[in-house]
Amino acid sequence: MFPGQHPNGFTRTEPAYTRTVDNDPVLAGHFAYPLPFYERLHARRMTVPTT
After folding, report:
1. Is residue 1 pLDDT above 70, yes or no?
2. CB atoms within 10 A of CB 14
3. How far apart are CA 21 and CA 19, in angstroms?
4. What's the rounded Cα separation, in Å, for the pair 22 and 38?
5. Would you put residue 6 in left (φ > 0), alpha (ψ -120 to 50) or beta?
6. How confident is the model at residue 51 (pLDDT cuts 50, 70, 90)?
């Protein structure tokens, strides 16, 4: 097995993006605009009881 290789034979790699929400104001705006809606939705989520 090679270094970084998973026992199932796959190697995990992380994508390298040059434009992210941290360094691109347009992407940051697209991320920030709906965020409050989804935060409220998450706060009001229903819990499903487990048996």
Report:
1. no
2. 5
3. 7
4. 19
5. beta
6. confident
**Residue 38 carries which side chain, given as an amino acid letter?**
Y
pLDDT digits (tens, 9 = 90+) for 6-50: 667 777 788 889 999 999 999 999 999 999 999 999 999 998 888
Establish how many alpha carbons lie within 13 A of residue 7's alpha carbon, considering only the half-sphere containing its beta carbon: 0
What is the amino acid identity at position 9? G
CA atoms within 13 A on the CB side of 17: 7
Residue 25 in tokens: 């104001």
Question: Which structure tokens are listed for 28?
Answer: 């940051």
Q: pLDDT value at position 14? A: 83
Residue type, 47: T
